[in-house]
Amino acid sequence: MKREEARQNLIALGIDEPTEAQITNYLNQFHNNTPQQPQTPSQPNNQQAVTPETKPDNSEELTQLREQIANLQRENIQKDIKAYAAEKGLTGEPANKVLAGFQDNLELARSAIDSVSEIITARETAAVQAKIQEIAKNADVPGGGGAGSQNKEKPNDVANAETISFGSAAPSVEARDYYKL
């Protein structure tokens, strides 16, 4: 494991800015927990050979430790997946349900998260474009006239004012507009 990977794991575990000492400590713990190859004795055969019968019973402890290491690695992968999903904006219960199928495969989870975030981004962009077009369609044009249909109904007060000319309907547009400046 490299220092950068260790830094990312510590950030995923909740440490905002891990120090170099914390990273070194994490790496030391990580490397000490990995199973090592048994060393072969280079001594002559004067001593009694270790047989399965005389071998100390560490197999149960080793299997438990290996299971614990596997569980910790799975947890790290799950935390990495959740951190990557949060970075892409996928959070909450629905995101956890979607990501439940990718708990052991980080690369597959990353590609799925990228695909889902692209779909969400495309939908959001389409919604914004539709809203902009709707607003532009219904907006008035500065300097006169509306952008929508030309057969708009006039407000009641305007229609009423056009029909009234000192108590009677105006005989023509010229008569109605005679006093306008």
Describe the protein.
This protein has a domain at 3-32 and 64-137. It has 7 helices and no strands. It has 181 residues and is an all-alpha fold. The relative contact order is 0.05. The radius of gyration is 38 Å and the shape is rod-shaped.
Short description:
Helix content is 59%, strand content 0%.
Keywords:
mainly alpha, 181 residues, rod-shaped, single chain, 7 helices, 59% helix
Radius of gyration, whole Å: 38 Å
> Number of DSSP strands?
0
Mean pLDDT across every amino acid position = 76
Given helix and strand content, the structural type is mainly alpha
Poorly predicted tracts of residues? none
Strand content: under 5%
For the sheet with most strands, the description reads: none
Overall 3D shape: rod-shaped
Separation, N- and C-terminal Cα atoms: 85 Å
How are the SSEs placed, and which strands pair?
Elements: H1 3-12, H2 20-33, H3 59-87, H4 92-99, H5 106-138, H6 156-163, H7 173-176
Helix pairs in contact: 1-2, 3-5
